[in-house]
């Protein structure tokens, strides 16, 4: 499953890091991303020519506090449940520092962090025709995940990120959910697909979410003080109608998180 049919979807995520070599090596080992380019200051990782993650080194940047606005996690969407099962077995055998796992009904997800504390989700979607709508919202939960059943679904060993892997969504920490909704839904134009206590989820084209915002660690957070490690930029790929409506190529949310818009390839 991909999100490519949506009018807007996630392109690449950019992170500011202190140790670009260590963090870059982690994403290559942990997720099987390719190094597309590297010049010592910027490393671009992805699949083939397609960049999913950009690392920007700034050794002088202030280290972000976990209670600030910014990144909650970058979520890498694998093409199938079989791929996720293969990756989970690889992660266990490689002693990757896994931090959690959830059955969200619309998807199955595994959580971890990179060496500088940037959150990561690795997930696969369930078929869209199994997603349930309740009171106009896509029903999602955070139930326990049957890890043994997931591993048993693997049809072969994990070798690298499959060609169809994308950044399925980006989950953000914000200071207040109403202000986040006004920006990500009201200004950017994403649909509010569901709410959790202290969180809102936003999708385009019927997808369960391309973006999410929560205050679980960051309630009341103010404007981000830059330069700082952590999230530097989220690229949104937008169709022609969305680009024309927004009339800009760069935006900042109310907490200073940078959003860049790129026209989808026709």
Describe the structure.
The chain contains 5 helices and 17 strands. The chain has helices at residues 20-31, 81-93, 147-152, 177-187, 240-246, and strands spanning 8-17, 34-38, 42-47, 50-57, 70-77, 98-103, 107-113, 119-125, 133-134, 137-138, 166-173, 191-196, 199-203, 211-214, 230-238, 250-252, 258-263. It has a single domain (8-263), classed as 2,3-Dihydroxybiphenyl 1,2-Dioxygenase, domain 1 (Roll), CATH 3.10.180.10. Strands 6-7-8-5-11-14-13-12 form an 8-stranded mixed sheet, covered by helices on one side. A 7-stranded mixed sheet has the order 2-3-4-1-15-17-16. The protein is 18% helix and 38% strand. By secondary structure, it is of the alpha+beta class. The mean pLDDT is 96.
Secondary structural class = alpha+beta
Specify the overall morphology: globular
Mean pLDDT rating: 96
Number of domains: 1
Number of strands: 17
* Strand fraction: 35-45%
Q: How many angstroms separate the termini?
A: 20 Å
- CATH class category label: Alpha Beta
Poorly predicted regions: none
The whole-angstrom Rg is 17 Å
């Amino acid at each position: 499953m991909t999100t490519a049919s949506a009018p807007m979807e996630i392109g690449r995520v950019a992170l500011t890091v202190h140790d670009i070599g260590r963090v870059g090596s982690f994403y290559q080992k942990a997720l099987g991303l390719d190094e597309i380019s590297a010049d010592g200051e910027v490393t671009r990782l992805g699949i083939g020519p397609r960049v999913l993650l950009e690392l920007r080194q700034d050794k002088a940047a202030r280290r972000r506090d976990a209670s600030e606005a910014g990144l909650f996690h970058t979520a890498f969407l694998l093409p199938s449940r079989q791929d996720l099962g293969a990756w989970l077995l690889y992660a266990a055998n490689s002693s990757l520092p896994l931090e959690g796992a959830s059955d969200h009904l619309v998807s199955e997800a595994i959580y971890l962090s990179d060496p500088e504390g940037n959150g990561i989700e690795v997930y696969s979607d369930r078929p869209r025709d199994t997603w349930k709508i309740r009171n106009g919202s896509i029903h999602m939960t955070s139930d326990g995940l049957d890890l043994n059943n997931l591993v048993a679904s693997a049809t072969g060993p994990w070798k690298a990120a499959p060609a169809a892997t994308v950044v399925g969504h980006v989950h953000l920490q914000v200071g207040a959910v109403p202000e986040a909704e006004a920006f990500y839904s009201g200004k950017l134009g994403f649909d509010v697909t569901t709410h959790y206590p202290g969180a809102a989820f936003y999708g385009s084209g019927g997808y369960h979410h391309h973006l999410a915002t929560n205050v679980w660690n960051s309630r009341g957070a103010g404007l981000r003080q830059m330069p700082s490690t952590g999230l530097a930029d989220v690229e949104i790929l937008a169709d022609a109608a969305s680009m024309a409506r927004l009339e800009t190529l760069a935006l900042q949310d109310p907490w200073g998180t940078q959003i860049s818009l790129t026209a989808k390839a026709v």
